[in-house]
Design brief:
heterodimer; A: alpha+beta; Immunoglobulin-like; six-stranded antiparallel β-sheet; five-stranded antiparallel β-sheet; 8 helices; globular; B: mainly alpha; Rna Polymerase Sigma Factor, Chain: A; Arc Repressor Mutant, subunit A
Chain lengths: ~375, ~160
């Protein structure tokens, strides 16, 4: 007679490749301090098409071949920032030296916009024999993943390093804490420039204040022994810098309440904060029918619609998701980044949708007030 | 939930993730893709998990969605009836494997979730987004079919 234990043998056990896939995904989380569990290919694909985007864009590059904040944002294709965005980006960032024996770190450009940071960090190798890998890059990944310069290069990173007698060094970073505040990294993008500099775009959320907010990034390097990461070779350093306090922004709020009966919630407040970089949105909602809300299985999100009923495109910041407020059971806050606009709208239209099943709920319009 | 806690919970679910993905996908590379997509989405959306006690149910549901997405892609690329019959993995119980694989997917999945993974009817209903009555009837039909097939091989289902 078969029991549960026998039944479990029907498919055998997870094979080595499956286990490797799981461990590799989890290692990616750990390598990035739990802040960037992003799929590798889409990140790199975005970078790989960047060259074409840059040629087409009318936004000037800071210096040809030297990537800045706007270059990374433009590389995402459809993201809109206002021309004034170039004026809020700091090029001379007060900072202290940070280096390991293999890599020197510095902030090339940065901006603290509302609570969101866009920071371009240079990681310069100590000598030309070093080949720097991004936080989620492995030696057996295609070298074409390392940015537009390598887009047409065949083979793996390890192949490239061997052929060019280079020593591979992995470079990663995590958000840090200062007396003034804490930076949590939302996403990291990277690419290699012609001189071997690994350039990171760090998008994060900063909680803190002050006239000159102090921020730190923990930078870590590892060497490889063959194609295996040599954990003994770990070197740590901290990149500390100060940014200008965020400029006062235009804010519009609605405290009008609207019930979304299909999914059992009520929106209590909508706040839009406009800047040349993006529009940052916050939606506070309360559960009024637990059963209906539970049926969404935590997949409820609200999307902004334009006058044609089309979804408003995402903005420059990589934020999103819902966080609990108060007791964590009935009140929630959704954050989003939308494309920048010259002036904030006087009304916004929000449609509920379920990110699991993709089905849509009701739509309501809110009147915004300054 | 910290990334260490998340990792520990996922590693503890390793065999469940494998078996669930195996239920849907015949190719190892597809199962690997599904589980990686699943973990990525689970981590990114972890704040939507209101109660960590339900993490396993939640992750299995995400994994099933990913398996179905891959099936949809394959459906566009490879006619289903041209896929080769699946051979049992080396460590598997071949008779039971073949009997389960002969069940249509709609019947196989609830059987696997209940008898292998220990999920209750209400949990399976939630995972599969089906009414509990539908889950029960599919389990009943699946169990009958499985019982018949196993009886032919001299085995009895408990």
């Amino acid at each position: 007679m078969l029991n549960e234990r026998d039944m479990k043998q029907a498919f055998g056990e997870a094979d080595a490749r499956f286990e490797h896939a799981v461990y590799q995904s989890l290692a990616q989380l750990n390598r990035n301090g739990g802040n960037m569990p992003m799929k590798r290919k889409p990140i790199r694909a975005a970078i790989a098409v960047a060259a074409a985007c840059i040629i087409l864009t009318t936004t000037a590059l800071a210096v040809a071949g030297r990537w800045g904040v706007l270059d990374f944002i433009n590389s995402r294709g459809a993201v809109v920032v206002l021309p004034a965005a170039s004026e809020v980006i700091q090029e001379d960032v007060p900072q202290t030296n940070a280096q390991t024996d293999a890599v020197a770190f510095s902030v090339r450009e940065a901006v603290l916009d509302e609570a969101y940071t866009y920071i371009v960090v240079e990681a310069k190798p100590a000598n030309e024999k070093l080949f720097l890998l991004g936080a989620d890059a492995d030696p057996d990944d295609p070298v074409s993943d390392m940015g537009p310069l390598y887009a047409d290069t065949a083979g793996t990173i390890a192949d490239y390093a061997a052929a060019n007698q280079k020593e591979m060094i992995r470079v990663s970073m995590r958000g840090g804490e200062t007396e003034q505040g804490t930076l949590v990294i939302d996403t990291l993008d990277y690419l290699l420039e012609e001189d071997g500099t690994l350039v990171y775009m760090v998008k994060g959320t900063y909680t803190g204040g002050g006239d000159a907010p102090a921020i730190s990034l923990a930078c870590v390097t590892y060497a490889f022994r063959g194609e295996t990461l040599d954990l003994e070779s770990r070197r740590d350093t901290t990149l500390s810098f100060t940014l200008d306090a965020p400029a006062a922004q235009s804010v519009m709020t609605s405290t009008e309440t609207q019930v979304y009966a299909d999914c059992g919630v009520r929106i209590d407040k909508v706040t839009l904060t406009g800047s040349p970089m993006a529009v940052y949105a916050e939606i506070e909602f309360t559960v009024i029918d637990e059963a209906l809300y539970a049926a969404t299985d935590g997949g409820l999100l609200f999307e902004f619609l334009d006058e044609n009923g089309e979804r408003v495109p995402d903005g420059a910041a990589d934020i999103g998701g819902v966080t609990p407020l108060d007791d964590g059971q009935t009140r929630f806050l959704q954050r989003a980044s939308l494309q920048a606009v010259e002036s904030l709208p006087e009304t916004v239209t929000l449609r509920g949708f379920n990110c699991w099943e993709k089905n849509r709920y009701e739509t309501h319009t809110f009147t915004m007030q300054s | 939930m910290t990334n260490d806690e998340f990792s520990e919970r996922i590693v503890a679910m390793m065999q469940t993730l494998y078996r669930v993905s195996y239920t849907y996908l015949s190719q190892g590379c597809d199962r690997e893709e599904a589980v990686q997509e699943c973990l990525c989405k689970a981590w990114q959306n972890r704040q939507q998990l209101r109660d960590e006690r339900y993490m396993q149910t939640w992750v299995v549901r995400i994994l099933i969605n990913e398996c179905r997405n891959i099936q949809k892609k394959q459906g566009r690329e490879i006619p289903y009836d041209t896929l080769p019959e699946r051979a049992a993995p080396a460590a598997a119980d071949g008779v039971l494997h073949d009997a389960l694989m002969r069940l249509e997917e709609a019947l196989r999945v609830p059987i696997v979730l209940h008898y292998m993974e220990g999920f209750q009817i209400n949990e399976i209903a939630k995972i599969l987004r089906l009414p509990q009555g539908t889950v029960k009837s599919r389990m009943l039909r699946g169990r009958r079919a499985l019982k018949t097939m196993l009886a032919e091989e001299g085995l009895e289902l408990c």
